[in-house]
Structure formats: structure tokens, C-alpha cells
Amino acid sequence: MHDSGNIVAETAARIFADLGDPQTINQAKGAGWKAPLWNALSEAGLTLAWVPEQHGGAGGTLADGFEVLGVAGRYAASVPLAETMLAGWMLARSGLDAPSGMMTVAPSRPGERITLDSNGTLNGRARNVPFARDAEHIAVAALRGNEPVVALVDVDACRIAEGRNLAGDPLDSVIFDGAPAVASTAAALDLETVMLMGAVVRSVQIAGALQSILDLSVRYANERVAFERPIAKFQAVQHNLARLAGEAAAAMTAATSAADAIAEASEFDDGIFLEAASARIRAAEAATEGAAIAHQVLGAIGFTQEHVLHRFTLRMLSWRDDFGNESQWAVELGNRIAARGADAFWPLIASR
């Protein structure tokens, strides 16, 4: 990666190491750790890394932002950093200014329809919106008639039906019901583009979490002694660790490839669709396999609340469903490839 990306990633890593250590958070009695972490991320410009300076952001590159998300994944961060960055990206792509504070994105599932009426109000329902109740604003991919628009809405103007994901993080339904848009504009990005970007964001986070899970598992296997030797010396455990390393590498390769493709592309074409959908499918599969392997290596201790493993595995498994799960993307990818015809398949693959 380029130098600025390294500096940005190192800044994010220092902040998370100081204020977002998983073990410290796991032992915390409340959520008092969240505000200092968020404030530090915000002051460093990381929360609006994808927003140009003229629209209120830090003016970072797409590559910079993806590196930050990889770091966030490695720390299993349960703050809406990814959601705020994605919302900022949507607003910036549409020429709208980004507000300060926490944001999220709606819809967060394919096929949901939010409309923007002629009077500037939003209507519809978005399910499973991450961190909706914690956010101050929501960036909405909506339709005005058949025209794609991006709108910014104040969370207080919406009705929130609270829910939680596997990791216990907020995963809420948002009912707009005439909520007035703070700002809106016709947008070049439609709901599919938002879903593709969100899918890659989650893939990068999963890849980061898998790397931490691999490190935890290897460390534990070298420290845990059975029959007078570390369990890492047993062939069955070595086999599991090798499988876990393979899953982590596969997720990282697919996610990095998709992120790099988006960072270098001028539009979301068929090549980007192939990269993003493939990364989403492979990262989700790796999350499923990797979580199972890690819990098998750590045994009973890995299932306890006292151990940090669950902070990674449950959050990683939850991320599989945001912005379309792997089954939805696999069907859509298959349909796209079939529609192009057999003669177009190899040139598309070979061009990546």
C-alpha cells in the first residue's frame, strides 16, 4: 500500500490499541469506553475518511479507508465506524455535506424500497439497520419515482424498533413514515451500488477479524499444555490451525482484491460486481468455517464470556448478513454470469 495508507492504518491501530483493546472492553462493566474511542477516531478524521474536505471530511482515499476498516475488524470494534464511513461515502458521492457524529446507512438489505416524496419526506421501512439507535443521522438510498436519490435524515425524526445481532450490537428496524430529509439529491449511485460497497466493507472487516482469531488460536495452542506438551504439537490441532490460516488468507485475498478494484475504478461495472460479490461470498464462508475451527481449538474456554474469542466470532458471523448474505450474492452472481453467456465468462475472469 502507499505511504499515506500506512500512516492512516498505523494511526487507527494506535487508537484501537489504546482505547479499544478487546480484553479491556470485555472486562468492562458498561459502555463507558465507547465515547473516548469514538472521540479519538473522530478527532483523527477516521470516521469521515471517505469524505472530501470541502464536504466536511478528512479527504482520505478509498484505499486509506479500507485499511482503517481492516484494523477495525482486527479489534472487533463494536462502534459504528464502518457505518459512518459508508454513510459519508454515500453523501460525498452525491455532493452532500457530511455531518459530524455517528451515522448509519439504510437500507442495509437488498430489495428494500424507501421513497422520497415530492415534499421532501421519506417513507418506507428498513430492517436490520446496524447501530440505528446510536446514530444521529442516516444516509438513505431512496427512490423519487424511479430516480435514485441519496437523502440524509435525522434519526430523531424516525421511529426505531430496537433489535440486536448475534454479538449484541444494535440491529434495528427504521420506520420513516414521513420523516423529513435534512438534505437530498439525485444520485449516480443506486441501491445495488450501496449494497456492493457495503458487502466489501463487511468482507474487509471479516478478514481483519479472522486474522485476530488466527493469532488467538495459535497463541492458545502454544500455551495450552496437555499430556505434558503444548497442544500445538498434536497433529490434529496443527491441521485445524492450518485450515484456519487458509480461511483467513482466502478472506484477506478476496477482500483486498475487491477493495483495491473499487479504489482504482471510476464506476461500479461488471468487473466490480464480480470482485465484490466474490469477496462477499468467500469472506462469509471463511467466517463460518473460521469461527467453528477457532472454537474447536480453544475448547470450552472459548465459549465463555470471560474469553475474548466470542467478541470476534459472534460479530464476524453477524457481519455475514449485512448488505446481502452470501446466498443472495451467489444467486445474483450466477444470474449475471449466465446472462453474459459462455463466451464472455473467461474474458471477465481473466481480466481481474
Folded structure, characterized:
The chain has a 6-stranded mixed beta sheet, covered by helices on one side. The chain has 3 domains: 77 residues, no CATH class; 91 residues, Butyryl-CoA Dehydrogenase, subunit A, domain 2 (Beta Barrel), CATH 2.40.110; 159 residues, Butyryl-CoA Dehydrogenase, subunit A, domain 3, CATH 1.20.140.10. It contains 11 helices and 11 strands. 53% of the residues lie in helices and 14% in strands. It starts with a helix and ends with a helix. It has 352 residues and is α+β, with helices and mostly antiparallel strands. The relative contact order is 0.11. A hairpin with a 2-residue loop joins strand 5 and strand 6. The mean pLDDT is 94.
In short:
Helices cover 53% and strands 14% of the residues. With 352 residues, it is of the alpha+beta class.
Q: Under CATH, the topology of the largest domain is which?
A: Butyryl-CoA Dehydrogenase, subunit A, domain 3
Unreliable parts: none
- Which structural class do you get from the secondary structure elements? alpha+beta
| Major pleated sheet | 6 strands, mixed
> How much helical structure, as a percent, in the residues?
40-55%
CATH superfamily caption of the largest domain: Butyryl-CoA Dehydrogenase, subunit A, domain 3
Inertia-based shape: globular
E-strand count: 11
CATH class placement of the largest domain: Mainly Alpha
Mean pLDDT: 94
Instruction: State the end-to-end distance.
Output: 19 Å
Order of helices and strands: HHHHHEEEEEEEEEHEEHHHHH
Radius of gyration: 20 Å
Name given to the CATH architecture of the largest domain? Up-down Bundle
Strand content: 5-15%
Give the count of structural domains. Answer: 3
* Spatial strand arrangement across the major sheet: 1-5-6-9-3-2
Number of helices in the DSSP assignment: 11
